[in-house]
């Protein structure tokens, strides 16, 4: 189960699927699983100096430790599990707001495979994101849903909205 929540392992498996099915798996930005692919990140950063990278710690960091990188020194060492992606500055917005869509499915046994999913959760970031290019410092503030919504009094984690357990 822990592998399902690891961004680094997800990046690894998505890249493997993209290798075998390039047309079907071209829906995510260039990604690396760290520390395993750290040398590839440094090499990519050297060859594509104009591109911004986003480094995300894995497993439940809730937005803490995310870094926006424009330049990585070649001697820099990465020894923690993380994922790294090319940062997309022109993201899909809903009325000017950044969002993430997560679909959570709970299977109690293989007989549940024919049932529809339990819940889809759409959370909007509570800060408006202008389409103009932001500086790295400004970008750090709007990068994650958690970092921008937690301080707000209207933030909820969504757990109160889950339907009651169905014992069927």
TrEMBL record:
GO terms for molecular function: ATP binding; tubulin binding; tubulin-glutamic acid ligase activity. InterPro entries: TTL/TTLL_fam (IPR004344). One of its GO terms (biological process) is microtubule cytoskeleton organization. The keyword Acetylation does not apply. Pfam families: TTL (PF03133). Keywords: ATP-binding, Ligase, Nucleotide-binding. PROSITE patterns: TTL. It comes from the Eukaryota. PANTHER family: TUBULIN POLYGLUTAMYLASE. This is Tubulin polyglutamylase TTLL6-like. It comes from Diaphorina citri (Asian citrus psyllid).
């Amino acid at each position: 189960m822990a592998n399902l929540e690891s961004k680094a392992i997800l990046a690894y498996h998505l890249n493997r699927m993209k290798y075998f099915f390039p047309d079907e798996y071209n829906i995510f930005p260039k990604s690396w699983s760290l520390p395993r692919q750290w040398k590839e990140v440094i090499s990519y950063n050297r060859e594509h100096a104009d591109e911004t990278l986003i480094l995300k710690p894995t497993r439940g960091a809730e937005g803490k430790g995310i870094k926006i990188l424009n330049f990585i020194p070649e001697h820099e060492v990465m020894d923690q599990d993380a994922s790294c992606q090319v940062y997309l500055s022109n993201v899909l917005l809903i009325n000017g707001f950044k969002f993430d869509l997560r679909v959570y499915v709970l299977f109690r046994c293989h007989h549940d495979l024919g049932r529809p999913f339990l819940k889809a959760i759409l959370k909007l970031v509570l800060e408006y994101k202008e389409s103009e290019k932001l500086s790295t410092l400004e970008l750090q503030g709007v990068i994650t849903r958690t970092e921008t919504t937690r301080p707000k009094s209207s933030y909820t984690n969504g757990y109160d909205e889950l339907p009651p357990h169905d014992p069927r």
